[in-house]
């Protein structure tokens, strides 16, 4: 694994907050594994840890929302990455609204989209959710730099790690 650490240690991807709603529950988490995965049709994949509460809600959800944060939104990243929804009502601490298909949208995100879940893919200790974008938006203007992995390195995961 040390050889692979030399590769992945050089990466500094944009972080995102993924939110899910299903069965009367809402959840959200900070995710570092996500990417566009198809050009035609456009598809985007987010990977959620199987030990994460958001995964437990997302596995029953038809739609997920993916949000980009600005670098100065570290407090929001810490809320969604460093706290678990099993103990804290994250949505009581942020401005949000309901989006397409009942998705949960964070109103202060730099940019966001709602995607219909078209496939779930096992991938080790994470499951990939392949999304078909159906609604999107964001702040007007160019915005500031996005929150990256290096900006969130000080956030300890809020969910239990096995």
What's the arrangement of secondary structure elements?
Elements: H1 2-8, E1 16-22, E2 25-31, E3 34-39, E4 42-49, H2 53-58, E5 63-68, H3 74-82, E6 96-98, E7 104-106, E8 111-123, E9 126-138
Antiparallel strand pairs: 1-2, 1-5, 3-4, 4-9, 5-8, 6-7, 8-9
GO molecular function, one term: FMN binding
Keywords: Oxidoreductase
Domain Flavin reductase like: 8-155
Could you walk me through the main structural features you see in this protein, from its secondary elements to its overall organization?
The protein is mainly beta and 162 residues long. It has a single domain (2-140), classed as Pnp Oxidase, Chain A (Roll), CATH 2.30.110.10. Helices cover 14% and strands 41% of the residues. It is built from 3 helices and 9 strands. It has helices at 2-8, 53-58, 74-82, and strands at residues 16-22, 25-31, 34-39, 42-49, 63-68, 96-98, 104-106, 111-123, 126-138. The strands form 2 sheets. The protein has a 7-stranded antiparallel beta sheet. It has a two-stranded antiparallel sheet with strand order 6-7. The protein is globular. The mean pLDDT is 92.
